[in-house]
Amino acid sequence: MIVHDALLLVSAGDPAGLLPARQQMAFTLGWHIILASFGVAFPAMIFVAHWRGVMRHDATALVLAQRWAKVSAVLFAIGAVSGTVLSFEMGLLWPGLMGTFGDVLGLPFALEGLSFFVEAIFLGIYLYGWGRMPPRRHLLMVVPMAVAGVVGTFCVVSVNAWMNTPAGFRIVHGEVTDVDPWAAMFNPIAGWQFAHMWLAAYMLVGFSIAGVYAVGMLRGRRDAHHRLGFLLPFSFASAAALVQPVVGHLLGGGLGDRQPAKLAAFELATTTESPSPLRIGGVLVDGEARWALDIPVLGSLIAQNSLTAPVRGLDTIPLQDQPPVNITHWAFQTMIGIGTLLALTVVVYWALRWWAKHDLLDRTWFLRFCAVSGPLAVVAVEAGWIATEVGRQPWVVYDVMRTAEAAGDYPSLWWLLATTVVVYTGLTVGAVLVLRSMARRWRRGERDLPSPYGPRPSLPHEDNGRDTP
Amino acid sequence: MTVELAVAMALFLGLVVYAVFGGADFGAGFYDLTAGGAARGAELRTAIDHSIGPVWEANHVWLIYVLVMWWTGFPTAFAAAMSTLILPLLLALLGIVLRGAGFAFRKYAPTLSQARVYGALFAGSSLIAPFFLGAAAGAIASGRVPADGQGDRWSSWLNPTSLLAGVITVACCAFLAGTFLTADTTRAGHEALAAQLRRRTLVVGAVTGVLVLGSLVPIARDAPTLADGLTGRAAPLIITSILGGMVALVLLLRRRPAAARVSAVIAVASVVVGWGVAQYPWLLVDEVTITEAAGAPATLRALLLVAVLAGVIVLPPLVYLFRLTQSVQWARD
């Protein structure tokens, strides 16, 4: 069925660069969103650990903050360059979009550039400030990073929201006119879509970091360091996971009016039924939904907040205006499924802890689940982006510009994609090797992690009275 | 002044700052690459880590600033340049990606052999990125990017002006980095290292000067519009640049690297500003003027606000960061 969908993506009149450009954008964006999430959510967690360390004289927390800061140095560096790749790709892959709408959608990007500036500057100050600044002032340097992460998320996501609900311009005789960049930036769903991604970033990072310490506890390292290393990010992830279903639901409200084809694909609604069922699983084959589990009425209730209002069926939408249905449907349900599972997990954990005074951290099965919760959250974020992006097709700017019109006409883009896959695989391997080696050296009791090519430590007095991590 | 000119100047100012500070970070790769084996180069490589580590990401963001100001303020010209110059820009991008990742990985590499691989990536790609960015700039400056974006994907940047611009960019980056590193190591009290860097920077500076002067005639033949501007309106800036370079060399000879650094910055900044002044009023030389390329007026006004915000929000902490890195506490490693 995926093959069928892939074929649906290619049609005879499309420019040669369309399909590889799509895959290139999807691959690089899908890779960057993981690191971008760390850029958004990690500073807040580092801040809390560092704050505990400084204000409550908690040595364990301070060590965590120091190590996380070093980890963030690696992650933020590759996040900065993979974000640059996307900036270039906006123009290189989608000249039709940028040439036509650059001055409509560009303002939030420009403001995002400023937040990126703030984040990069304070990252530099923070990372190199250990032991070189008064502790409290040093702690304060994390705050602008965390704030800039939030502002930057809003700006970038607002552009994507604009592609779903275009605003801030009119088209008269084929020309873009009456441009209002502020209206484009604050388009109808910018706020909710931002909130959705912002929480997703906290879930991704929170569960991923907690998972690392869950693995440590599974291997018998059950000290205060691992407990705090687990609980602090897990608390952030818990809060985000609990609010996320509500925000997701509010973001989805009105989707049937805004983008009926996307909702129909999400729900695998082949025909308009009143009330619509919630269709779990299933595959679209020749216009029919097969092998799906239907729960009556629930589709109307969730998608339309009504017991009777139907989800508009795919049969009411011309084939050339439909997204690839199966990819969209499965990506959407993967996201929902994982999000629900993670939300239930944190409810069970905190409920048992508060009311039954029972700590699931003593249970191997729970730690095992936590170890995979990070990867699960990554899959959910990726699936969410696939659902919203593929579900918007065939439009790049919904109901205004088709993706085929945005692509350039480069026949050799497959080479670019192949090169990119090789380079990004290398980056992934490099990052994993470096981060694992850092963890190994920390476990051996090293603190400074000196670079292996540096001069041998010479004069012992140089280290006296210094408090570097 | 029209609003589109103001936006173009704000954009170009970002490019100048990127050329100077981002360029100095790239140029450090030249000294890293030629530092010698692991033992002999250890001290210099550590000094480079220490010098560019806290600032390279912040300096890199100027490139993002330039890109977003360009595509938002002058979208059609941006799309045209991106379409025609896809090859040099992708190669520059590859250099940027490998430089950043290689630099970050090397610092925390567990073994010397891994550090070597990452170090080679960092240092090598530090030279690739500015070469191709310079070549792309040369393509625009010599009028090889047509307004419709359908320029030749090879000859647009495989030509005398582009290639010379690429080489000169690399040389300028290395010269800037040399003065910066000499000043940093002098302040940190690494005398032997500072002396070695000073010698090498003098050679790099001399080579850069010869390259710039030697390329004037080929560029004048190849890019007449640019040459008219360089010898006309922009002539004072070009003279400033040549004088700045010479003063920097003299100051280095007299062992005053901190002052030489300022002079080198003036030399590079004025040659970049000179390029902008020389090709005014063209955005894409001989093809599209700034006024013709301008996007929607409401957007241009919003971009001016962004530029002001950059001055208010970004500059103070950036100055704070730079001051910290130049302070006594930070000079200790």
Please explain how this structure is put together.
The complex is a heterodimer of chains A (469) and B (333). Chain A has helices at residues 2-9, 18-55, 59-93, 95-129, 135-140, 142-164, 181-185, 190-218, 224-252, 255-258, 260-267, 298-304, 325-355, 364-392, 403-406, 413-443, and strands spanning 170-172, 175-177, 278-285, 288-295, 395-397, 401-402. Chain A has 16 helices and six strands. With 469 residues, chain A is mainly alpha-helical. Chain A has a two-stranded antiparallel ribbon. Chain A has a two-stranded antiparallel ribbon with strand order 3-4. A two-stranded antiparallel sheet of chain A has the order 5-6. Chain A is globular, with a radius of gyration of 24 Å. Chain A has a domain at 192-410. With 333 residues, chain B is mostly helical. Chain B has one domain. Helix content of chain B is 80%, strand content 2%. Chain B contains 15 helices and two strands. In chain B, strands 1-2 form a two-stranded antiparallel sheet. In chain B, a hairpin with a 3-residue loop joins strand 1 (282-284) and strand 2 (288-289). The termini of chain B are far apart. The interface between A and B is large, with 76 and 80 residues.
Short description:
The complex is a heterodimer of chains A (469) and B (333). Chain A is mainly alpha-helical and 469 residues long. Chain A is built from 16 helices and six strands.
**Helix share of residues of chain B?**
over 70%
The count of strands of chain A amounts to: 6
| Structural shape of chain A | globular
- Oligomerization state: heterodimer
Structural class of chain B: mainly alpha
**Terminal-residue CA separation of chain B:** 48 Å
Name the features:
heterodimer; A: 469 residues; mainly alpha; two-stranded antiparallel sheet; 69% helix; 6% strand; globular; disordered C terminus; B: 333 residues; 15 helices; 2 strands
